[in-house]
Amino acid sequence: MLRTDPNIIITGTPGVGKTTHCRELADKTGLHHLDINEVVKKHNIGETSNDPDDPNTKIVDEDRLLDCIENELEEGGQIVDWHACDLFPPSMIDLVCVVRCDNKLLYDRLKQRNYDEKKLQENMDCEIMEVLLEEAREAYEAEMVVELKSETTEDMDGNVRRVEAWIKQWKKDHGK
Ligand code: DAT
User: Fold this and answer.
1) Which residue, by CA, sits nearest to atom 23 of ligand 1?
2) Domain ranges of the chain
3) pLDDT tens across 82-135, in order?
4) Whose CA is nearest to atom 25 of ligand 1?
5) Domain topology for 8-39+75-168
6) Which of 20, 22, 80, 156 to mutate to test the pocket of ligand 1 (most atoms within 8 A of CB)?
7) Is the shortest distance between the CB of 126 and ligand 1 below 6 Å?
8) Nearby residues of 94 by Cβ (< 8 Å), 6 or more positions away
9) What ipTM was estimated for this complex?
10) CA of 134 to the centre of ligand 1 (A)
11) Quick one: pLDDT at residue 67?
């Protein structure tokens, strides 16, 4: 089935601003915010990690996750909110936005979430090493991957306008 609306992944290290972007985008475009954390909870597909130092981290069975969201992706118009991206089949995805932010700012945001020192450092390393950007570039065509800075509300407004314009163009190009 051909999608009438595009599927967009909003990914990045925890704390960079994914959910904030997804909410605003869903609000402005009417597309659906597909919050993968909610899907994992709803279908109970997160296994508790074996790491005794990190009992709160859930390991998600990606095959089961894909089964749970397959219909929505086929339908299109999904804004997928998650800290990983390479599990989603490229044929189902039209745009991948990797949200980024300054390390100092990220540190403060994660500190506010009361992350312990180990988890905080892991996430800081993830952002510094550009793990998500690399993952996106390996899994998808270069033209599909964009980096969005999310430090100020102006950044956010600009990003939302940019993705809105991209959606309009996508629809034109696909005769919608
Ligand atoms: P994520 O979903 O990537 O974990 P979030 O959307 O929950 O991140 O944002 C984390 C915090 O940072 C939250 O308090 C909102 C704030 N934030 C994110 N992007 C921002 C921006 N562009 N301007 C101001 N605050 C921002």
Assistant:
1) 152
2) 8-39+75-168
3) 999 999 999 999 999 999 999 999 999 999 999 999 999 999 999 999 999 999
4) 152
5) Rossmann fold (3.40.50)
6) 20
7) no
8) 3, 6, 7, 8, 144, 170
9) 0.99
10) 21
11) 97
